[in-house]
């Protein structure tokens, strides 16, 4: 029996060693789990900050693009208005400087036979 006791004690010692190693591993695993959770939280914060930063850049760029587009539209409308005004002024000046065309009917005298006298004709 002493041999059996000796073997049993050896097995118990080995089991105790394995138990200590397992407890140590469980503590390390718990510590790693806490560290991973901490890193995960920090990564989430960084992603959030990065997303916010990128969103602000995009928003600023969009505002700038909208302002540029507005100025281009204003320039085009202004140019068209200027062209229309210039054309209207030119037409007004030309109309003012040219003689007025009247729509009065000119009556030419008729000869006795119903023929209108001409200056270039045979017998005259």
Account of the protein in words:
Keywords: Coiled coil, Membrane, Transmembrane, Transmembrane helix. It is a single-pass type IV membrane protein. It is found in: Endomembrane system. Residues 7-65 form the V-SNARE coiled-coil homology domain. It comes from Oncorhynchus tshawytscha (Chinook salmon). This protein is mainly alpha-helical. It is built from one helix and no strands. The N and C termini lie far apart (172 Å). The mean pLDDT is 84.
Order of helices and strands: H
Q: Ends: how far apart?
A: 172 Å
Largest sheet: none
Number of extended strands: 0
Task: Assign the structural class, choosing from mainly alpha, mainly beta, alpha/beta, alpha+beta, or little secondary structure.
Answer: mainly alpha
- The 3D shape can be described as rod-shaped
- The average pLDDT value, as a whole number, equals 84
Structural Rg: 53 Å
Low-confidence stretches: none
Beta-strand portion reads: under 5%
Number of helical regions: 1
Helix content: over 70%
């Amino acid at each position: 029996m002493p041999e059996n006791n000796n073997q049993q004690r050896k097995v118990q010692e080995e089991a105790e060693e394995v138990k200590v190693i397992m407890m140590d591993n469980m503590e390390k695993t718990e510590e790693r789990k806490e560290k991973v959770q901490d890193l995960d939280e920090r990564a989430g914060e960084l992603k959030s900050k990065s997303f916010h930063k990128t969103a602000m850049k995009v928003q600023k760029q969009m505002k700038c693009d909208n302002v540029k587009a507005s100025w281009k539209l204003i320039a085009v409308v202004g140019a068209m208005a200027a062209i229309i005004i210039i054309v209207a002024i030119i037409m007004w000046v030309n109309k003012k400087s040219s003689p007025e065309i009247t729509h009065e009917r000119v009556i030419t005298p008729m000869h006795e036979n119903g023929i209108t006298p001409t200056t270039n004709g045979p017998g005259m």
